[in-house]
C-alpha cells in the first residue's frame, strides 16, 4: 500500500509540473495541459499494461502492476479535471469548443493507449515457442 501511495503521489506531482509547464507556454484558451496529460498517461498505461501482460514468465509482480498502473498512471491522469474543463469550455467558449475538446481528449487517449499496447508488443521479448 505504501508503494501504491508513493506511485500515486509521484504521478500527481508529475501532473502538476507538466500542467504548469504547458500552461506557461499555452497561447490558446483551451486547457492543453490536461489534454496532454491524459493522452500521455494513456500511452504510458498502454505500454505498461502491454509489457506486463506480455511477461509470460510472470516476473512482473502484482505490486509492480499496481504501483505503475494504478498508482503512477492513476495519479498522473485526471478524468475529473478533463470533465470540468470540458463543461467550462462548453459554457464559456461555446458547445462546439467543448465538444471538440472532449472528442480530441477521448480519441487521443484511446489512440495513445492503442499505440502504447502496440509498442509493448514490439518491445516485449518473444517466447522461444512463438
TrEMBL record:
The chain crosses the membrane at residues 30-54, 101-124. This is Fluoride-specific ion channel FluC. Keywords: Cell membrane, Ion channel, Ion transport, Membrane, Metal-binding, Sodium, Transmembrane, Transmembrane helix, Transport. Na(+) binds at residues 74, 77. It is found in: Cell membrane. It catalyses: fluoride(in) = fluoride(out). InterPro entries: FluC. Fluoride-specific ion channel. Important for reducing fluoride concentration in the cell, thus reducing its toxicity.
